[in-house]
Design brief:
The protein has a domain at 31-86. By secondary structure, it is α+β, with helices and mostly antiparallel strands. A hairpin with a 2-residue loop joins strand 2 (64-66) and strand 3 (69-73). Helix 2 (30-37) packs across helix 3 (41-52). The longest helix has 12 residues, at 41-52. The protein contains 4 helices and 3 strands, in the order αβααββα. The protein has a 3-stranded antiparallel sheet. The protein has helices at residues 10-13, 30-37, 41-52, 74-81; strands at residues 27-28, 64-66, 69-73. The protein is globular, with a radius of gyration of 15 Å.
């Protein structure tokens, strides 16, 4: 069953691992951010833990904590990935 306006599932889209944050573009999960940066999930969690401990150079964006959930501001992460044209 497909809901009108819903994003199709992976098999319906025919792509591997679409980002669920496409539904919620304001933030993304740590595994999604790690995938975009090309690092392992565990490396991302270690860097975020260091940042939350005060090392601002460990992870390149702010980290939003809601209870036990960590979210990464998507706009900040995407801005890092954009190469300025000269």
């Amino acid at each position: 069953m497909t809901i009108a306006g819903a994003v199709p599932s992976t098999t319906e889209q025919g792509v591997d691992n679409p980002l669920p944050s496409q539904l919620y573009p304001g933030t993304m999960t740590v595994p999604e951010a790690a995938r975009l940066l090309g690092v392992s999930k565990s490396a991302a969690y270690r860097a975020i833990a260091a940042r939350l401990g005060g090392d601002t150079g460990a992870w390149p964006t702010r980290v939003v904590r809601v209870g036990r959930t960590l979210r990464i501001p998507a706009a900040e992460l995407r801005a890092l990935l954009v190469t300025p044209r000269t």
